[in-house]
Amino acid sequence: MTAIVGIGATEFSRQAGRTELQLACESITAALADCGLTPADVNGLVSYTVDPVEETELVRSVGFQEINWSSRVPYGGGGSMGVLSHAAGAISSGIAEVVVAYRAIRARSGATRFGGAKTSPSPTSNHAGTTAMQWAMPFGVLTPASWMGLNSVRYMHEYGVTSEDIGRAVVQVRAYAEVNPAAWGYQRHMSLEDHQNSRWIVEPCIHLYDCCQETDGSVALVITSAERARDLPQRPVRVGAAAAAGLFEQEIASDFYRPDLSIMDGSVALAAQLFGKSGYSRGDIDAAMIYDAFSPILLMQLEALGFCEFGEAKDFIAEGNLALDGALPTNTNGGLIGEGYIHGLNLVSEAVRQLRGTAVNQVADATTILCTASRTGAILTTDPA
Amino acid sequence: MVLVDLDEGIRLVSNLTDCPTDDVRIGMPVEVHFVPVGDDAVTIPAFRPSAFRPVAGNAGVGA
Questions:
Q1: Which residue on chain A is closest to B10 by alpha carbon?
Q2: CB B1 to CB A149 under 8 A?
Q3: Which among A13, A166, A330, B51 is least buried, having the fewest CB atoms inside 10 angstroms?
Q4: pTM of this prediction?
Q5: Which DSSP letter does residue B20 get?
Q6: Could you read off the pLDDT of A53-95 as tens digits, one per residue?
């Protein structure tokens, strides 16, 4: 059994003014300080395949002394929660004892804006997971918003979902961000009218305010055995379950070739893994952190994960269930839309804060939280093993 | 931008042409034509509203 014992982050900005390596060093140093460990205690590293920070430079810069295990998770942001299953596997097997999971990104000020057009003619994408996009590029399907848009239109058509229905989810996560000092959306109120009046990015499904923030910053987690966690200062947040499900013909952000475009069936399969094998049920979940790079997929994941029926996320949201007093408080840091886009890993930090009881928007008595990103996920809990 | 299900059983990312935006409908029958792009005589498949009523099955716009 494993536990997250430390979390760290840089500020979230649009212009970090320093390299991804520097950002990673800062968040990792903060995460180690959070749990009272030193670089010499760490012997495992895990990040995303797409992360630009090389392990060799990180070891030199942070001062790790001996790394016995490292790993990278594919599928971009959809793989973000995979760092937890990788770390848990390494620690449970005994290959690693203390693992640092990190993601460092300059999504706004980097060489290419993360939400911008991808036009590289390269036959491979350097493990960004976007190789198949070469078949979409000639038709102007160049940006993440356009990848998401095609399936989102089908979803809206299939279930009679309107942009206002989607906007209500955005209003909720932005309300959380509005009081979170770490968030881009801090003290920036957004009404449903503001959402509807923001310009179209992909008509008729994605307004400007349906898009996450392209963010510069880094987040790091320290993970170790539940046994060792008991001797560390923070309340341990146990990885109660961790799973992944990448399906035939799935792509990284556009499942153009799956049979039913209106369903995120990678998340259906993920939920079957998470709930089917762990002994947890949906009723055990006190709050959820769900990857919201673009707001339509927040609705689609709520359905795919089984918190409501297909087509009914719009009603589930309109009834206020994502709020603190609702059935499933969701993305209480403001999500990737309202807080910032550290490619999903800042959702895990928020889950940890909730379970420590230190979140800005605290869910009362939260003991068990679901973190998911399309096809990877984990159930984090303060319950003893 | 459209996804098109072909009668042959595959799906293509493509463009819909020769159709006012307001007339686009999910499921509408379309037919292929080939559009030159760039300067090097490359053509790519695009789709436009079908001139014929399909007899069985549908080549339809997927999204």
A1: A257
A2: yes
A3: B51
A4: 0.95
A5: -
A6: 999 999 999 999 999 999 999 999 999 999 999 999 999 999 9
